[in-house]
Amino acid sequence: MACHRRLAKDGECIVSREVITHAERGVMADQFYAERLYSQAQLTGLLEKVGFEAVRCHGSLEAGSERGQDLGMMAHRLVLTARVSRRQASSPPVRSLPPYPQVTVLLGDPSLPDTTKVDGKFNPLDIDTIERLKVALGELNDYEFSYVDDHQALASTLRAEPPAFVFNLCDEGYWNRATMELHIPALLDMHGISYSGAGPRAWGCATTRTSSADSPSLSTFPRPWSRTSDRTTASPHCPPPSRHS
Question: Is residue 82 part of a domain?
């Protein structure tokens, strides 16, 4: 995977382009997106605005990857704590039930190859991550979670037993193919199922370089250099995307 990042002109966003390339099949995914940056003062102001007090910053949390992966925006984070003001605590709000107490979590299929993972398949670290996710979600008492990771039977499962709500964590894509990431929300839309995350149209724009570049709302963002050409006539002078940590 190659990643290129630049700071937006207003200094408030990091604009990124990520390209996943297969040695034999060429480009598997080409994504363009922006993520907003927050300073300690901005985060403190947001917390105080919604009623928190005694906001404390515990410094910066720097993460590392045992597999040498680029953690991107997760590499440097600010950790803040705050408490609810006494005035709000004296009159607690009426607790309402969640709109979707039964949630189906949609994941990648560990039985299928995955060219974006180490050794081209799910490995023990990936399985451990999923198990930790299940433990964390199990602590939410107002929800009941079920898990679906069988992509071969996914369409028939959704048709036979459509879930009330899908927590879409299948960033591997349908059939663990990065080029089919938008197929998951498209499939859910076809069955009239509510889900988390972006819809297929947004995914199509984000993963198609020309579409995202032509969007008026993104026209002010700096865009890394790119060139589109037919694989059979690609110029040897076309440089690959540079990687920036």
Answer: yes
Q: Which residues of the chain have pLDDT under 70?
A: 64-65, 68-72, 87-93, 208-245
What are the Cα distances from residue 4, in Å, to 32, 41, 224, 226? 10, 28, 7, 11
What's the rounded Cα separation, in Å, for the pair 185 and 206? 14
Q: How many domains, the chain?
A: 2
Q: Render pLDDT for 124-168 as a digit per residue (tens, 0 to 9).
A: 999 999 999 999 999 999 999 999 999 999 999 999 999 999 999
Same domain, 154 and 215: no
Boundaries of domain holding 153: 102-205
Please give the Cα distance from 211 to 22 (Å, whole number).
22
For the entire predicted model, the pTM comes to 0.57
56 forms beta bridges with: 81
Q: Following CA atoms 140, 160, 185, 26 in sequence, which dihedral angle do they give, to the nearest 10 degrees?
A: 110
Q: Is residue 150 part of a domain?
A: yes
Q: What is the CATH number of the domain that holds 155?
A: 3.40.50
